[in-house]
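A protein record pairs a chain with a discrete description of its three-dimensional fold. The following entry can be read in just this way:
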Amino acid sequence: LMPKGVEYQVIGTDFNGKTKERTVLKSGRALEKSPTPVTSNKQTTSNLRKLLNTLKDRRKKDGDSEN
């Protein structure tokens, strides 16, 4: 129990393993947050594919197998 007028924050995990964050402000207002999963970024995916293709080409050039 916390006295009124004191701001505090509680961070924990639920049964599914997701992080939950609850903040209580001095005014008594309670804010609840759960971080949203990061959406996939197509630009990053295409850059990763470029990197993988470049590495495969270098391996072929050096005579190494793809495995």
